[in-house]
Amino acid sequence: QIIKQVPVRFDPKTLHIPAHSAEKLSSMKDVDWNNFLKRVCSLLDSTEKSTGAARSKLNLLYYLCTVAVHKEIASRLMSSQLFPMLIQQLRAAASWDIRARVARVIGLLALHTSELGENVPISEAVILLTELIRENFRNSKLKECLLPALGELLYLISREEEKGEHPRECWAVPSAAYTVLMRCLREG
């Protein structure tokens, strides 16, 4: 059963970066874009364990969800240092709320990315999502958060392979990903 996601709202007052619109982000010069990305990555990488820090990180992820639905921004974010940072957060975050939001950002980026460089660690994200689903297979709430991101990444890989611009080895999909996906479809 796939549940429709509720609209995402972020609080610009508590966001520790300027809440630029997607239009503003797409018109940024490279220097400003890189500074923006550095600030986003440093906020995501913060290891502070307080409730306020977790709320701040969730708010940032909500903001990323709102800008990730724009094709140009999604492509730029996917090819930036943000994507490996999201994978790291998915692996290391203590809170499942944060992991769920990170998975949503990854899924939105995969859905809206129009071009993908071969250096983007898509395989690493697929492997990690597969492991997390397998480890938490009995937890249907977690599966509902993680499966859409895995599906979007697999679809993105298939779209890129159809274009034929990159060799198949760039984004190797482990057979375990298909096994987990089929098991989820079979067992619900």
UniProtKB/TrEMBL annotation:
The keyword Isomerase does not apply. Keywords: Kinase, Transferase. GO terms for molecular function: kinase activity. InterPro entries: ARM-like, ARM-type_fold, ULK4. Signal peptide: none annotated. It comes from the Eukaryota. PANTHER family: SER/THR PROTEIN KINASE ULK4, SERINE_THREONINE-PROTEIN KINASE ULK4. This is ULK4 kinase. The gene is Ulk4_0.
